[in-house]
Amino acid sequence: MARIHRRKFLKLSAAGAAGGLAGILATGRAPAYAQGTTVHWLRWNDFVPSSDKVLREQIIPQAAKDLGITLNIEMINGNDIQARTTAAIQSGTGPDVICALNNWPQLYAASVAEVTDITEAIGKAQGGFYAESTAVANDGKRWLGVPWCIVGAENSYRKSWFEAVGATKFPETWDEYRAVGKKLKAKGQPIGQTLGHSFGDPPTFWYPFLWSFGGAEVDQSGKKVVLDSKQTLESVKYAVGFWKDCCDEGGLAWDDSSNNRAFLAGTISSTLNGASIYLLAKREPDKYQTEKGTPLYQDILHGRLPKGPAGQFSYQLPMTNMLMGYSKQQDAAKKFLAWITSKPVYQAWFDSQGGYSVGATTSWEQDPIWKKDPVMAPFRDVGRGAHFPGYPGPANRNAAEVLSKYIIIDMYAKAVQGMAAEDAVKWASGELQKIYT
Amino acid sequence: MAVSDVISQRAYVAAPRRSAATRLLEDERWLAAALLLPTVILLGLFIAYPFAEGVWLSVTDARVGIPGHFVGLANFTALLHDSIFRVAVWNTFVYTAVATVFKLALGLWLALLLNRHFRGKAFTRAFVLLPFIIPTVLSTFAWKWMFDPTFSVINWSLFQLGLIHSRINWLGDPSLALISVIIVNVWRGVPFYAISLLAGLQTINPELQEAAAIDGARPWQRFWHVTWPLLLPVTMVVVLFSVIQTFADFQLVYVLTGGGPANATQLFATYAYQIGVGTGLLSEGAAVSLAMFPFLLIIVVVQLLYIRRVEVH
Amino acid sequence: MIEGAKWRRWVYFYVPLGLFIFWLLFPFYWMLVTSVRPDRELYRPWMAPNYAPFWTAHPTLVHVTDLLTQTLFIRWMANTLFIAIVSTLISLFCGLLAGYALSRLKFPGGGALGTGIFITYLVPQTLLFIPLANIIRNFNLGDTPWALILTYPTFLIPFCTWLLMGYFKAIPRELEECARIDGATRWKAMLYIIFPIAVPGILSAGIFAFTLSWNEFIYALVFLSSAEQKTVSVGVTSELVRGDVFYWGQLMAGALLGSVPVAFIYSFFVEHYVAGLTGSVKG
User: Using the beta-carbon criterion (under 8 Å), do B47 and C120 form an inter-chain contact?
Assistant: First the structure.
């Protein structure tokens, strides 16, 4: 069964490579399913509207032709996916495929169907999955879902403002970044970073921050809590100074969208974010302009999170398509997953993203899209070296609980709000102990 | 009163013959049973069973997709040691108490104002209801936009009026964040109080007021000795329902702050959601939700006893 | 009417009322301005010199037309309206009968049942929505308006029942007794004497039940999945909050269009409701 499947898949991707979507058409396979087989795919609606258009106007008809299925794509706010997933699992009915963010596949491991065969075939055909995608979608024994993409997070920063304070390229270490940030804040152009409760930007900044100082939640086994360390304390103290020196203090209330708005409005000079700020500014150059009246996007560059004493780290937002165990369309849904993640089909979606998402496999680094726009080039290989919360331990349920309770973020937030760094670390460490034991 | 009108209604006079069903319904008990049947069926089906299931969840170690085993009260004892839970309990009490006091005071005031005759009365009454009508999620987005640290129109106005010199971090400052959330809740709730109390005010016979006025009672005395006692039963019911809703409030905080910064606005319901849905720990989430129950029950029993006492008088 | 000098009217009446109206309605004005403001101006920080929050020099209808043409907004409105009306009617029907029985009839277990109905109101939604999803599946109601129409009464009925009990209690017993002496059955006395007097109460219970179902979010989010079935709250937030970008203009236009038409309907209701009330008081 699996064998046949893989062969079919390889044939499909080979054919596709020959000529995009048209290539698949040319294979002329008859629809494999009775009319009326519907696969329901639930995903977040990402910020790139043209991607939704590709999915609706290109992929849906194509799925009908190639697979003989009716594809029903439902897009909702990323924050609300978990409520839907939970209810679907508990009642045993709902979307056939759910596109999970972060390490949700680990949370729902007991309720997803096996997709190891198709996933490994895709990995093999596309140069292998990134470590972070593997960490969230594989429990060490099997694949809990097919990794879909990674939303890259880099610092968007204002080129001219950085140059005005003497930084011709993005600072490489926290000390350099802090020095630059201090000068910028003095000019009323602070760095904007969020310390609120929101699933995207707060963790993607503060986890790598912790790691880059050598702090970690747990050891490699994922059993022993090691948060209460000299390195963590160091990072918390540094964060307090960094916040005071460089950051817009409104950040305590920000959600994932606030820093975008602040940046587009020209009140902050730099923020860790997806490429959405740049892409939006580029899409509508008349709307988003600098204080000099030039298009804002021409003054935006991207840079990696700086290095700390323990090195340079990042946490990117991975996404994984889970085939749900309760689905009555197992076969069709599985074929659909193999199909949509295959190179030719995925290509159409990938192109429409314009670099906002990178592939979950390494071969997408070679895509010509990265040559089109030098500003987007830094996103090309963000998937390399990215880690997930729980690092260096596994990205399991415990790590997800720490993440969803915002304990690491709140440790920094508490310190920034005036709690002694030692107490903040103690508090967070205590919470972690409860979760990990 | 319209008693004579009502009694002369044709429908009521024309009732000479009675069927078996009618006779059965003459018995208070049968009538009551018949009247209560639809309610009992609906509530039994859609509340009793899910509630039982929720209670069961809270004494197991169930997670999403994994049916749990009975663990007794382990989830509840774990909550006792949970610092975030304690913060959530405290926040919920502050949130409910402060918001209710303000909603009642402002709502009553507004009701008294709206009870007067003025031009555009009906229109005003309807539009004052707007904050209550608008879907909470959407109005909360509007408030989020008004509180936004970068774009706040509130800050702009206060600044222009010379009341502040630097921005107020409405949702970012831990103590202000709870106040901001309360402001939005009060904004949403005042129309509800006002219109309910207005309805109560209108059932009060104006002659009573006039009589008191003739006796030389001052406006404040008239309110306190004539209006307020008559208004009290309706008020208590309104407060009762509002307290329950406020205590279990979810959407507002979910949209506005997500419980942040550093759990400064974490409430029972948002924490239950965060644990149950965000982490998939269904059992612990259910335990947090259920932990609301005794608190609510105490509040409600106290209020109900008070209502009884008021009604006896 | 208010007696006394003109300034007293201002101090005790116009100024407070004006402040109330300003406070309650300002967010709506703000929604209006935001929804006609071009995006260029939308992203201007509050300390910017050209920040003009209360008006815009270049009003645009693009957000509104986008909302109406690019999303299923009108469909969502219709869905929400349908769901809210039907669930309100069901709840009013149940609440009216139950409220009457509990407040004016004596029968064994009445007090306990009243408390029981009330207790159901205390059960938090966050506890219920997952088990409820199971029931919805068993009845095959998933992704239909009936999933909401049948679950909303769980929090509407207790409310309606208790509000109406309050009204029924306020109606003097003699009214009914007079009617019964004249030969009316209990049933008719209830239908033709008590219920008409309770109309204002029924109306306000209806208004609030309608509003609660209009507002509901979690059940609507969990029980509905296709875009054509969604309610306003769920539809607007799922279409206009995209990743880390909010479509503020459309979001605010949606908020405004999702509430003001209802307010117009209410303005008629409030009129009727007041008229009905004064009628019954003055006879």
Answer: yes
